[in-house]
Amino acid sequence: MTTLSTRPDQPASAETTPPPAMRLRELVFGAAVSAAVRAAARLKVADALDDVPAAAEKLAAALDVEPGPLRRLLRTLSCYGIFEERPDGTFGHTPMSRMLREDDPQSLRAIALWCTEPWTWAAWPRLDDAVASGGIVFQELYGKGFFEYLHQDAHESAQVFNQAMTTSSRQSADDVAQLLDLTGVTSVADIGGGQGHVLASLLEKHPEVRGSLLDLPDVVAKADPRLRPGGALADRVTVVPGDARREIPIDADLYIIKNILEWDDESTRSTLRNVVEAARPGARVVVIENLVDDTPSMKFTTAMDLMLLLNVGGAKHTRESLVQRMTQAGLAPLVVRPVNAYLHAFESTV
């Protein structure tokens, strides 16, 4: 008779690399993991758990949910390193579960909610149609464009989107500010810069530099408080409502274009062309994007790439595709450098 034994310091459930068949089964159930993360984020489970591990019953009472299903949710997430199930049956935090807290400096709660919004569950099963036709599935599903739908029919989802984009921009802003050398630069233009978190970080680090923020009127109306009238940086900033695809009426020593060259090729071409037309010879242009190759975050960026295919027909760039589009616009990159694990900076001169 065969018996199973384990070392006292190594439980029978210790994780090992699963065989290919089991790994594929796990991937097929990926929707369950996404749904579990969304449920934990919406219920604010991570916020209810402090530094002391707690039983599911205690957490359930605090959250006003049923303890049995909550324990099952936590156990599932623990398999992926989100929370930790301890030998005494309590659950504790892990680095990933802490990022589901709203008060964590690196919180990804808004992004977790955004990537699992209700419309996504209807779009993903149509990925084969998008691959076969190249068409925008979102338009077929909802009868209107992605942003039109968000602002007209899904106000809560639009708020989640705005919060997620703000969180992402704020978290990467310091990385960009640390990367860029502003020696000799007296003016910076943040093109399509959203609420201006990158610009604010740069101006805080370089008190001798002035800045301009260009984005759509309803976006810049909600600019970072540091950039608005009365803000700490307001006297060094010009806020320019506008569309970079139509015109860039800004003269600067350095132009930053971050995460806006992914919607469609025409938008990319027109934005780069407008930068070249606006800039004086010798001005620097830095394009910052996620890549779907040559990066340690390919699982993340390739998934984002497929979501873009579904909702707006856009695409994330490879290193080669972005170099090609910049070169065609007269902005051949001189240096390509990683900003962090998921962003690269392409530096060029007009």
Q: Which properties best describe this structure?
A:
17 helices; 9 strands; two-stranded antiparallel ribbon; 12% strand; seven-stranded mixed β-sheet; alpha/beta; 350 residues
Task: Give an overview of the whole structure.
The chain has 350 residues and is of the alpha/beta class. The chain has 17 helices and 9 strands. A 7-stranded mixed beta sheet has the order 5-4-3-6-7-9-8. α12 packs parallel to α13. 32% of the residues are buried.
Oligomer: single chain
| Order of strands across the main sheet | 5-4-3-6-7-9-8
Average predicted confidence as pLDDT: 91
- The helix fraction, in percent, is 40-55%
The total of helices stands at: 17
Task: Describe this structure in a few short sentences.
The protein has 17 helices and 9 strands. By secondary structure, the protein is α/β, with parallel strands linked by helices. The longest helix is centred in the middle third of the chain and has 25 residues, at 155-179.
List the helices and strands and how they pair.
Layout: H1 20-28, H2 30-43, H3 45-48, H4 56-63, H5 67-78, E1 84-85, E2 91-92, H6 95-98, H7 109-114, H8 118-123, H9 127-133, H10 137-142, H11 146-153, H12 155-179, E3 187-191, H13 197-205, E4 210-215, H14 217-220, E5 237-241, E6 254-258, H15 265-278, E7 284-289, H16 298-311, H17 319-328, E8 335-338, E9 344-349
Parallel strand pairs: 3-4, 3-6, 4-5, 6-7
Antiparallel strand pairs: 1-2, 7-9, 8-9
Helix pairs in contact: 2-5, 4-5, 11-12, 12-13
